[in-house]
Amino acid sequence: MTAKLIKVVAWIGSVALVAIAFSIGSRIPFSEQWPLYEALRTTAAIIFAVVGAWLAIVYPDRLRLSLGNGDRNSPAGQRFSSLFTPIANSTVILCLVLIIGVLVPIVRQIPALMSHIGLLRAFSFSVLTGLTLWQVWTVVLTLIPADQLKSQADREVTHVNTMNGLRGLGSAEKPRKNADQE
After folding, report:
1. What is the dihedral of CA 74, 78, 83, 85, to 10 degrees?
2. pLDDT tens-digit series, residues 119-147
3. What is the pTM of this model?
């Protein structure tokens, strides 16, 4: 499958899941939905913290620069941006969940809205489903920079080993022991 086809299938699947969530959501009380919102909030906070730590460790100098400075088209700038996207996504998701947590008690006090409780539950469950899918995608996005960093480290080790081999020196990477040698 091409990347474009995968993207189209993912979007269609996501829209279908949100539509299904809306159609069944009216039967799911908010008291059963709220623990899922809390789990989403926790996941978003964890991703925010972990990726933020990665940024601070891997790109400390880049963090000192304002976001408008630096070459975003450079490989380091692209990796920085790929780490920043999950933070931005998780921040938005976290804010939306926090706002929903405040809005629900307010909505419960408005009799005109409470007469449409089924519709409100369906809307809430579809929002929860959409935010969860977005957070799942964000979690997947956190793997991309890690893979890029590993690939870069592997290329550097290969380069050093090649240069050391040409110079008649040893390998930069220590040979790994197998289970029989331990």
Report:
1. 140
2. 999 999 999 999 999 999 998 888 876 66
3. 0.72
